[in-house]
Write a sequence for this structure.
């Protein structure tokens, strides 16, 4: 983030020169000189009421107008730090089933020992393997189920690496991550010129101000730098626990922003981006409790009439169930954090899910809400949910 240096002061000196006059006998006494006093400029700051002792001009005028517009400048420092990269380590290796109908074998010793198939073309299918073997028939991978898959039917998958931030005290302003490459505008509208500076996905910025223009919310991330709300996933701090939370510990999930924050003793301690349920498999709003934790879980299901939504996922890491089959867990099969992408679960990166898993206890609250009001709230709308 860029930092701006304040002008610390401006001092104006007024000088007057005295002419030399010859004094003659009985000449009139020189006239008394009048002193010239100018207004002293205020030190740069916000002056919502006009001070008597100085003139709030220059930088103070700009800062005061920004404050009247609800814009915080300069940005307060964010009390955050990066979690350990060690959190991304897991004892699993993953491979994606790429063949429309992949045979399963009881042994890699013979290709005639086919016992079943990974079927359903277009499905999301991943295996977790700990062993591979090169045979006369080619390379084979053994899945968690004990079955073997031909290496020609799979592609090794590397989990995406994205990590949120550890928070050392609830921030005084909103903040968020850039979701897609863009350039800021000099004003909160599309007609304003672009700033010749590229914003990169994953960059973290404090939010200085928000303006709604037409149907678009514009976010100020720097002096003269505005971006559309759609290109940033924001964290909105709160100091009040949700109704029903009595111990100051809860996981806060904002469906509109696709962000997750963790509060301990009613103070923010962690924040990141997530992927929640996509239409019509929404993540249900409400107040829930974590009812089960599992280091790893095999998940499968299908909620679509044409079977195109089928998924099979082995060793889903750091799973915390909170609403029937809906859970907070790591996702190694996509990197769309900041966008809805699940069947109702709350997907996090591997490292982020490990952080939350280590912090969370069975019985901790999970508060899910949508400030945009676009997510259905009627419990009758929801099925058991899934990954």
């Amino acid at each position: 983030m860029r930092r701006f240096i304040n002008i610390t002061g401006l001092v104006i000196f007024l000088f007057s020169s005295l002419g030399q006059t010859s004094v003659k006998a009985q000449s009139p006494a020189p006239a008394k000189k009048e002193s010239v006093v100018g207004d002293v400029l205020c030190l740069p700051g916000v002056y919502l009421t006009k001070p008597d002792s100085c003139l709030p001009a220059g930088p103070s005028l700009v800062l005061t107008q920004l404050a009247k517009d609800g814009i915080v400048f300069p940005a307060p420092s964010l009390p955050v730090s990066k979690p350990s990269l060690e959190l991304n380590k897991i004892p699993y290796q993953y491979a994606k089933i790429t063949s429309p109908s992949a045979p399963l074998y009881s042994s890699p010793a013979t290709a005639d020992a086919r016992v079943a198939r990974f079927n359903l073309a277009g499905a999301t299918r991943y295996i977790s393997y700990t062993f591979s073997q090169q045979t006369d028939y080619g390379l084979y991978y053994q899945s968690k189920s004990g079955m073997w898959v031909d290496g020609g039917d799979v592609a090794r998958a590397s989990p995406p690496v994205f990590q949120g931030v550890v928070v050392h005290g609830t921030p005084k302003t909103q903040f968020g991550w850039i979701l897609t490459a863009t350039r800021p505008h000099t004003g909160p509208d599309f007609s304003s010129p672009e700033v010749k500076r590229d914003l990169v996905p994953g960059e973290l910025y404090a939010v200085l101000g928000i303006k709604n223009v037409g149907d678009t919310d514009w976010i100020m991330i720097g002096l003269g730098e505005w971006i559309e709300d759609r290109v940033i996933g924001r964290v909105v701090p709160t100091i009040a626990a949700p109704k029903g939370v009595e111990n100051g510990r809860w996981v806060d999930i904002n469906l509109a922003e696709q962000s997750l924050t963790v509060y301990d003793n009613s103070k923010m301690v962690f924040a990141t981006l997530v992927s929640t349920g996509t239409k019509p498999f929404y993540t249900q709003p409400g107040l829930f409790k974590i009812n089960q934790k599992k280091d790893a879980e095999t998940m499968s299901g299908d909620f679509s009439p044409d079977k195109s939504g089928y998924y099979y996922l082995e060793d889903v890491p750091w799973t915390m169930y909170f609403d029937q089959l809906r859970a907070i867990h790591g996702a190694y099969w996509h990197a769309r954090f900041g966008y809805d992408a699940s069947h109702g679960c709350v997907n996090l990166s591997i490292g982020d899910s490990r952080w939350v898993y280590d912090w969370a206890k069975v019985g901790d609250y999970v508060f899910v809400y949508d400030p945009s009001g676009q997510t259905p709230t009627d419990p009758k709308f929801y099925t058991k949910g899934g990954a």
